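Researcher: Re-running this chain for the archive, since the previous output was lost when a drive failed. Same request as before.
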Amino acid sequence: MVDRSERFYRIDRLLRCRKVVTSERFLEELEVSAATLKRDLQYLRNRFNAPIVWDRAAGGYRFATPETGPVYELPGFWFSSGELCALLAAHRCLAAIDPGFLDTQVEPLRARIEALLESSGHPPSKFMDRVRLLPMTRRAVESCFFSAVAAALFERKRLEIEAYSRARDEINTRTVSPQRLVHYRDNWYLDAWCHWRKALRSFSVDSIRKVVPSEKPVREIPEELLDSHFAASYGIFAGKVKAWAVLRFSPLRARWVESELWHPHQVRERLNDGGLRLRVPYSDEREILMDILRHGAEVVVEAPESLRERVAEEVRRMAGTYES
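Model: Regenerated structure tokens:
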């Protein structure tokens, strides 16, 4: 059965689209009893000043010319109950991604969504108790830095940033033209044009230690170039595709991997033994190496040989730490 808020929306839509709607058509569309239909129509008249009348000559209900008084409208009933629940879940996602960043902007929307759910007979507290998000590898980000980066991104202004390089254990100063904010594996990244490197780079927002806004306009990079650079290869390490990894998963592991999207251009092949062969383009071995290792002995690197040797070397090093 369609819930109450959705029924109000459908009643309004039918009357606006068809002008005259028979009782039979209402009952068919709403999947309710005649008594429920009458209660809904009366509620719309009394609570929302809906000018719904029965037209005996036309044989159905229609909107009459509104009389003086409050204007008829269905405030907020643009979404079905399911859509409202999805919006609440999206709000929880935002809160879990990085609590506090968007509270000021999101709070009025969240409150409105909760009020609409309440009026539709779906208490939001019960719904939210059943939605859990468990970010496991999120790195803390200073909200002031995130806000400054986001502001520069949307205002199309350059930034001077001091970013910590974990690989080199040093802090570097860069002037960048922000292009995109990316949320990837529970962490935020800034895709930007680095004016020092004169190339596109991706910066982990949690590594930023200082931000100095600039009034200089950004260097605009075409969307096609951004996509070809940042989306061509596997993971967060962007760049021109270096090679294609060919991975063979055991029949057991294939049950999970066959449903996973490693890359938009990946190629999957089901094997006769129930296993899976996965081909993925990559430009940097670091991230794909980590994902290969998490599958342990359930995956074998078939190609390229350089990646196969890198995995074997890492496995030997891991074994050595336990032998000692």
